[in-house]
Amino acid sequence: MSIVPPPPTTALKPEYLDETIAARLGLPADPPVRILMLYGSLRERSYSRLVTEEAARLLTRMGAEVRIFDPRGLPMPDETSGEPHPKVKELRDLSLWSEGHVWCSPERHGTISAVIKNQIDHLPLSMGGIRPTQGRTLAVMQVSGGSQSFNSVNQLRQLGRWMRMFTIPNQSSVAKAFQEFDEDGRMKPSAYYDRIVDVMEELVKFTLLLRDKRDYLVDRYSERVEAGTPIDPVTDLSSIALGASLNAR
Fold it and tell me: Where is coiled-coil annotated (predicted)?
C-alpha cells in the first residue's frame, strides 16, 4: 500500500525532526531502513490505520522505505490449506523484506483486535528454515475510543517477544482517537502526535544500530548444539574479536 501525498498538517514542527539519524550515528543511510507496518481495523475511517499512515509519513521523511499491509481479504489461519493464500504470501514476503515492523491495534474489550492478531498469526516463527520475524525491530502503538490504556501495546510487546523481535522501549497510545483527527484524516497537534514522532525516530535509530549485528545477536547456543555446528575459532568473528581484545591487554 502506497502513501497518498498528504494534505498539509500543522502537527509536525519539521525544524525539530531528526532527519539525519544515520549520519549522527556514524552509519550509512543507504540502503534505506525497510519497515513493514500492520494495523488492526477494517473500518472505512480506521483510526489505527490513520495513526499508521501518520507514522509512515514520518518514517518516509526520515529516509525509510515503508510498506503498509492491507489486511482486507486475509483469511483466518485455519481457512486455507496447501499453497499459501495470495494475501498470506504477500504478508510473509513483506516481513522477509523488512528490517523492522510497526504494529498498531485498537483496544477492544481490553485486548488487541482480531484483525491485528490474524496478521501476526500468519507469520510463522520458522518457514523453510527462514524466520520472517526473528531479529527485526518492532514498534508498538494502539488507539482507544475512551481514556488512555496500555493493554494492547503490552500484549503486542508480548507477541513481539514470542516472535523473537527486538521491541523498542518507547510506545504510543492514543486515547479518544476520534477527537485527534481532522476531516482529512490528519492528526491534530497534540502530545499524542509528538509521541508518535518520538517512537518513529527511536525505531529508525534501533534498526540502524542492529542491522549489521542482527544475525549474530540471534545466534543461539542451543540451536548450534541441535545443528551440530560448533564454534570455529578460525572463522567465527566473535572469537576473533575476543582474541584481539585479550591480546590487547
Answer: none
Same domain for 247 and 134: no
Domain that includes residue 143, residue range: 14-218
Residues 42 and 73 in one domain: yes
Cα distance from N-terminal residue to C-terminal residue, the chain: 53
- In angstroms, how far is CA 188 from the centroid of its own chain? 23
Q: Name the DSSP letter for residue 7.
A: P
Rounded Cα distance, 117 and 76, in Å: 10
One-letter identity of residue 245: S
Residue 160 near residue 138 (C-beta atoms within 8 A): yes
Please write the tens of the pLDDT for every residue from 60-85: 999 999 999 999 999 998 887 777 89
Q: In the numeric block, which cell numbers belong to residue 173?
A: 497510545
Closest among 63, 37, 41, 36 to 52, alpha carbons compared = 37
- The model carries a pTM of 0.87
Instruction: Read off the CATH number of the domain in which 23 is found.
Output: 3.40.50.360
Spatial distance between the Cα atoms of 98 and 66, rounded to a whole number of angstroms: 9
Q: What are phi and psi of 133, to 5 degrees?
A: -125, -25
Position 181 scores a pLDDT of 93
Residues 247 and 241: their CA atoms lie apart, in Å, by 10
In a domain, residue 6? The reply is: no
